[in-house]
């Protein structure tokens, strides 16, 4: 909540897709690989279907959060995959704080509303918890007097948090999180999500006002419906040139979370997808004929309180210097100079005046 959505979003047409046929605000519903056709349905006019012909096709539809068929997740949990998800979570948190201050709400109900359960201890779950911690420390005491000590956050993870990071950095993150008032690490599994609580495998029950689900990836329906080879996780299989296996024409490619290179397992991260995108741009413009190769540039994570983790091939770093590196690195990854200028302005406004707590429906 340290910056507005307009400061991190860039319209597609600003990137050069300005001809009418260059961009379609539509949903792809299927592919005919033999006829080189993508079946589409308008996102603005449901039921308006049409086909788009292609010479070469790139599939990069990402993935969904994996619910593992846990009862109640789809109905009651919030996810962290789309921009719309972030807005829903923001509004839910602010609504819960406002409701918790009303005189008709009991203390027990107020405590429940201000308890946030995060399921999944990967970078997404940990960084969301970090943002909640900063909001509590920097804004709750100012905006919701008397409620700061009522806020609780429980991070549920059956294994180690930040499992892809160096063990020393994992321990540092655990120590920091466990030292914070109201923050708890639960080594457990969630077996059910309900409107006002979650149930743990060990039999425990956690009353809560918000559940954020951040565990694993699952294929989108668009990918599930494709009659082409996939791995056991439902990802499209490709060769090392990112060509889709099962396409007889050899003119389709897949990258990112929805794809898996045969005999070359890679993590489902933005870094991998970005490298694949750059490689594919070179390949399709006949500027390379080599197969895709990936060398990790390292990992960064924010754990709150101006504390970060840096896990690079050149070395490991933690604490404030790592936070500064994390913030600087992600600033350079924003999609345009407009965003790179706007985000620091928002950071400065937040530092001086606090977070904007306007509810955006």
TrEMBL record:
One of its GO terms (molecular function) is NADH dehydrogenase activity. Keywords: FAD, Flavoprotein, NAD, Oxidoreductase. InterPro entries: FAD/NAD-bd_sf, FAD/NAD-binding_dom, NDH-2, NDH2-like_C. One of its GO terms (cellular component) is mitochondrion. Pfam families: NDH2_C, Pyr_redox_2. Gene3D superfamilies: 3.50.50.100. Residues 27-277 form the FAD/NAD(P)-binding domain. Residues 298-356 form the External alternative NADH-ubiquinone oxidoreductase-like C-terminal domain. SUPFAM superfamilies: FAD/NAD(P)-binding domain. The keyword Lipid biosynthesis does not apply. Belongs to the NADH dehydrogenase family. This is NADH dehydrogenase. It comes from Dreissena polymorpha.
